[in-house]
Amino acid sequence: MRGFAKLGMMVGAALMASTLAVRADVTVKTKYYDIKGKTGLELFYDMNRKGPRHGFLTKAIAQTQFKTSLKGDFVHSNGVCRTKGAGMTMQITYVYPRPVDKLPSALARRWKKFQATNVTHEEMHGRLAKKMVGDVNRTLRGFRMADGQSCRKANAKLMKELDRIVIAYNKSQVDFDKREHRDGGPVEKSVLALIGKLN
Q1: Residue 17, Cα to own-chain centre: how many angstroms?
Q2: Is residue 67 part of a domain?
Q3: Neighbours of 155 (CB within 10 A)
Q4: What is the number of structural domains in the chain?
Q5: Nearest-5° angle of CA 17, CA 19, CA 20?
Q6: How far apart are the first and last CA of the chain?
């Protein structure tokens, strides 16, 4: 029986470098950070101060965080290596801003729309991640290959297949963010509407 813990670390590292119905493979939770402000602009500035870290120097307004783990072994039998007990699990955490004080009615209406846009955006990141987990698990659980007892070639081939899935996943996340954050795109419009610069 040959484990592939190293493979799990490599896949996890690729996922962290980027950023389906929910099954037992994926768990989801939501948390909030508190902000204050009496105007949309004040709320926006407070989000820029208190939001979750995005890279080394910047903060995000909202964020989808992923934590993954990979388990399983290779089993060799009759000249064939196959996976046993293999699977990826993921914990998704959505992070959103939350005003601590009651907002004036007009600002409250703008905030509700702004937060709805945040949720729509982050949940798309979550859907892309869930699809990736499904693709990884289908590959892991159906994998078998003729090889020697060390399963070295089988392990190398499986790693390549999983790398391909993760690379495609990372690209889908980056492409989605580029569309959303483009000039005049949904994120910019949402912020402008919150601060009262867009009707």
Answers
A1: 11
A2: yes
A3: 21
A4: 1
A5: 130
A6: 63
Span 85-100, pLDDT tens digits: 899 999 999 999 999 9
58 is in which domain, residue-wise?
Answer: 2-194
Q: Give Cα 173 to chain centroid, integer Å.
A: 8
pTM of the model: 0.83
Domain contains 199? no
Predicted confidence (pLDDT) per residue in 18-77, tens digit? 333 334 589 999 999 999 999 999 999 999 999 998 765 578 999 999 999 888 888 999
